[in-house]
Design a protein that fits this description.
71 residues; mainly alpha; elongated
Length: 71
């Protein structure tokens, strides 16, 4: 959830000041790529920690995590 605030800050301060056209589009794609990379790393680490913490109940832990994230 913290990524949303960082992205909003970068968009407001950095992307709004960039010139229109191809530069703006390239910067938007770059920022979005870094956001996606961070989110993927966060989710991978979360599920790895869950699998390591609850080795006998991996399925239950994953479903519980999914239900918590969905609310």
């Amino acid at each position: 959830m913290n990524n949303i605030w960082v992205y909003a800050f970068i968009r407001e301060r950095f992307l709004d000041a960039s010139p229109a056209g191809i530069v703006y589009a390239a910067l938007c794609l770059t920022v979005r790529s870094f956001e996606a990379l961070g989110t993927a790393a966060f989710l991978t680490a979360t599920y790895s920690i869950l699998a390591n913490t609850f080795p006998k109940h991996v399925g239950t832990a994953f479903v519980s995590m999914g239900n918590i994230a969905a609310t």
